[in-house]
Amino acid sequence: MYERGEVIVSTFPKPEDVRRIADEKGYIIMAHNYQIEELQQIADFVGDSLQLARQAIKVKTDKILFLGVDFMADMIKALNMDKKVIVPVKGSTCPMANCLRREDVLRFKDMYNAPVVAYVNSSAEVKAVADIICTSANAVDVVSALDTDVVLFCPDKNLASYVAEVTGKKVIPIPGDSGYCYVHNYVTDEEILELLNKYRQAEVMAHPEVPSSIRKYANFVGSTSQMEKYPSTSNAKEFIVVTEKGMIAKLKKLYPDRTFIPVHSMNCYNMKKNNLKNTLSALIEEKYEVELPEELSGDIKRVVERMLEITEKPVQH
Ligand code: 13P
Ligand code: SF4
Q: Is the CB of residue 73 below 6 angstroms from any atom belonging to ligand 2?
């Protein structure tokens, strides 16, 4: 048995201790692909935003510990309003998701009279006024499925440009130039060229949050769940992985005989706020509980469910 505080203060917790306490307390652990390796190890489920949404509607237990950032935790809570959802750290957030307000979206919508597609990396209030949401895994399918040639897309300008390139539609980014993920947007040509020079046989996999100037090096562009599948379709032994570094642990576990090379600058500070120690504290103290007003949760649930409907029947493109 453990005393409150004893395990936390006196030791660096081991993954198996944290897992044991999750089981004793009746929590399932869901984690995003960018979490550190030790947290991926103790999770019941590790995935990208789309997989997390799909998984969240199937949860059977009434307690969930989520490891990721706040907009993902809100989505999981919205799909599980009758359950207790906790996170280890308050304020583990996504700066890109916070760069746009509800009023900005409504202003652009008035200006262009076009449907708004909100990337899942957006605040609850922005999702609530969007016509539909998407993740990086299904952005192309969602925009293709809309019966219009012009869409407003927020907040990631790089994902918007990728979707425009693949679908051939006019995809207007909102807010525009200031909408990007700092982890993906600032990768440089020099970093990629240096790695390509060192690993001459390597293929490049890139997340669509990188700018088009970096996408041009990629043999494959896709979300983190799509990156998980790509190596099984390729003969390459080495892959340069142009997304947040946490993804390397997931890929190594799936393909132990291949080499995955990180871009060292790609570190999401907020994703990395979670660790074994604060996860253990969260389980012992059963906090911090995710709270979401009923009206917002209803709106988020509606847009997530609409997105899942479309994704289950992907359109041809
Ligand atoms: P995925 O949807 O690919 O998991 O990406 C989420 C994210 O935060 C990318 O930076
Ligand atoms: Fe947000 Fe970028 Fe971190 Fe993803 S990697 S959570 S988009 S800051």
A: no
